[in-house]
Amino acid sequence: xxxxxxxxxxxxxxxxxxxxxxxxxxxxxxxxxxxxxxxxxxxxxxxxxxxxxxxxxxxxxxxxxxxxxxxxxxxxxxxxxxxxxxxxxxxxxxxxxxxxxxxxxxxxxxxxxxxxxxxxxxxxxxxxxxxxxxxxxxxxxxxxxxxxxxxxxxxxxxxxxxxx
Length: 164
Hints:
Blueprint: E1 3-4, H1 9-15, E2 19-26, E3 31-39, H2 51-57, E4 61-71, E5 76-86, E6 89-99, E7 102-104, H3 107-121, E8 126-134, H4 140-159
Antiparallel strand pairs: 1-2, 2-3, 3-8, 4-5, 5-6, 6-7, 6-8
């Protein structure tokens, strides 16, 4: 970890998350931005904001998006892979919704599980997890490898702090 970030008051008012974590990591050659927004309940209208809406609102333009599987060794998780651009800068974004014991890529699928969990378990807690790596020389393969290695490393620890 190279830096612990703070979410500013204005962003927190818009986000309405109950808790956040924002950190920057580096392996010496490439930096990585890690963000988690946790929501104890979605019943009061508070819910994760999709990066597909927030990033373009910050000036980043989407270039490509698809669903991707990340192999964690003992299982795979489904995540959104999103390439964005701002001027000459390019970034690779992975994000997913973590609810109970599942990782969900799609926004509609995540909403479905919120409703199902509310009915079955009386729970609507969830978290948005986002990882961003800059594309150096537009090398998407290197950024993809870095993100997947990071997720594989951090995921078991992450589960100790997210809805279970």
